Model the fold of this input.
Amino acid sequence: MRQHRLALCKEHYLEWVPEQTERFIKKYEMFSRNEKILVAVSGGKDSLSLWDILVNLGYQADGLYLGLGIDGGIDYSHESQRLTEKFASERNLKLHVVDIEKEYGQSIPVLSMISHRGQGKPCAVCGLAKRHEMNRIARDLGYDVLATGHNLDDEAAVLFGNTLVWDSERLLRQGPVLPSAEGLARKVKPLCRFYEREMTAYAIASGIEYIYEECPFAEGSQSIYYKELLNQMETTRPGAKLTFYLRFLEARKSGELFIEKNVEAAHLHPCPKCGQPTSTDDLCSFCRMIEKAALVTG
Ligand code: SF4
Done:
């Protein structure tokens, strides 16, 4: 790990990653051992490693897998669900599985076709559905906090994209912890300071079987382009990504950023159908999408 000027053997690396995770959980006051955590698991290295680490650290962590119905020629959803279920059953962990198609009548690609008349990738619809479902299930099942496996590469790419266009509202919402609000579960990212390659190394060294393939719709995405740019910087300046992210968090915390002063919280009220917070006067975006799909497909 050039950015830390640190090299560890497998045994010590498998101790170092959980120790650091515990440090970040405490530093950012993510959750305590008395709280119930719902880990959003996709079958990938980050989310499965996060679940593994939290359970080994003694936290009460259950898993949530969302079936998106994505095939893309590699049977992506089926394979990622199989690996997630295998991981949970081998460790005797509680896993909630929610299939979007069974729950709402259509898979993510079909919902996207209906919403966007067949244009573009389904990522916007997928993101909306994931946020809605993760929050709904955390709230309905009484979890205190929702944990996701975003790593430093993910966070630095999002920060880079938001900074390029000075999206102050999104910058204000970015951080290791998004506090709970009326109808919204607290969201945390305990792996946000680990490089992607560090999490890959952890998953491999701990023998976690995960899906190697990316979602087929990830190819050519803007976030992958930003990750490539940041990786180029990292090659010549080890630690550049970590510094970029940590300095942002410091500036945000100290109130140095203009965004802290200027952004007003949007006025939210419950969606009349699902009860989740929305800024519109009518149904939330997710319920509107589901209603439109039901109308189109009869
Ligand atoms: Fe969803 Fe795949 Fe897009 Fe990610 S890349 S948002 S999993 S469709």
Remarks:
- Residues 2-297 form a domain with the Rossmann fold fold (CATH 3.40.50.620).
